[in-house]
Amino acid sequence: MLVPMGPLLCLFSAACFGAMAVFGKYAYQAGVTPPTLLLIRFTLAAVLLGLFLPFATTRPARVPGRVLAIALGLGAIGYATQASLYFAALTVMDASPLALILYTYPLMVTVAAVLLGRDRLTPARGVALIAATGGTLLVLLGSGAASFHPLGVALGIGSALTYTVYILVSDRVVRELPPLLLATLVMAGAAVALAGRSAATGGPDLNFAPAGWLWLACIAVVSTVLAMLTFFAGLRRTGPSTAAILSTFEPVVTAALATLLLGESLSPLQLVGGALVLISAMSLGSAGAAARGAPQPAGGGGSEHQLHPRG
């Protein structure tokens, strides 16, 4: 029996996103610095996504100035900061535990939404939150004193927190713009902000091995543009609930690739903790998306997974 195209697209997207940490590790080995990686990634992604805009099925006749400013600000402040923290953490810790730490964001989004009065805490969500918290602790405790990096953990948690704020803000805008246009504006905002930061610090450091360009292209094309486009296509066919569940395949891919290609490994305690985190993320993502209802065909449905930016 053939698997429907929608779930396949979501899984493919998760695999593309999941490979980004491994591409980042290889880029670092080639001498690429995190600021240069981020600047090239977002600039190239913004250009490529912009090239797809004329082929989008839905294009607004006019974008209100307020919405345009928020979309660009999401990239310049939210996405650029989240990605900077993530890739800074990647310089000092393994990709596998970092991916699991980032996936605590469904827990953070749920707690924040409840505190802000946007959502309610059901018994099932309460259990999922407790399981996710316990799983995160197991991931951290299972690393052992020798491989535990407090700075990396702090940066990873900061990345998840920033992503949470990004989601809560973008939730107000995602209904007003088609996802492809919003993603393009977010990428452009991030690229401009990082270009300004680079100019203030002497410009990008391009003194890295030629192989670095390959890994930069992989991050921008495979783990950003292709990952986003296939996620949007899968979301349109499956709805936010299924897409949210399938997205938890991402850290699984990261851990598998990191084991095969980078020689990383998770301890038994971390594997148990990771399983708790992913099961909780599936539960919280599904419940949140189901509570919001199915997305509109134009991409206007409000799911916290609709933008699905990573790292």
From TrEMBL:
InterPro entries: Diverse_Substrate_Transporter (IPR051258), EamA_dom (IPR000620), EmrE-like (IPR037185). SUPFAM superfamilies: Multidrug resistance efflux transporter EmrE. One of its GO terms (cellular component) is plasma membrane. It holds the Pfam family EamA. Its main location: membrane. It comes from the Bacteria. Keywords: Cell membrane, Membrane, Transmembrane, Transmembrane helix. The chain crosses the membrane at residues 37-55, 67-89, 95-115, 127-145, 151-169, 181-200, 212-235, 242-263, 269-291. It is found in: Cell membrane. It is a multi-pass membrane protein. Residues 5-140, 151-282 form the EamA domain. Belongs to the EamA transporter family. This is EamA domain-containing membrane protein RarD. The lineage of its organism: Bacteria, Bacillati, Actinomycetota, Actinomycetes, Micromonosporales.
